[in-house]
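Sorry to interrupt, but I need a hand with the structure work. It will help me judge whether the discrete encoding reads sensibly. Write everything out right here, beneath this request:
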Amino acid sequence: MIIRTFDAGDRDAVIALWRDVFPEYADASRPQRDPALSIDNKMRMQPELFFVGTLDGDVIGTVMCGYDGHRGWVYSLGVQHAMRGRGYGRMLMLHAEAALARAGCPKVNLQILSARRELLPFYERLGYRVDEVVSLGKRI
């Protein structure tokens, strides 16, 4: 797999991938989960921290990250279902962590939906642990 920065030509492939691997993107009652909007927003804010993994020229995975000077965050780590279990998700995460480390980031955070707890073992194998915090949010 080749990991590189997202390019505008990847847009349709990334949207198709996200709609497949993130079922919550199909929920029309949650417009903030619109993959096209997520891409547009990322292109305005640290676009250099949006990566795609390709195999034979096809996008098979993605990861986005960001750094605010205090903490890094990882978003939208996803790999095609047929390509899982081959280490591609791990490679994408390590790539994101390395990019954040180069930016001076001391700690990386990520969130998973509580309905997706089956993802915890993957992140735990990468050294992530559940922080004893309550995550709050507000749409503005």
User: Anything to note?
Assistant: The two ends are 38 Å apart (CA to CA).
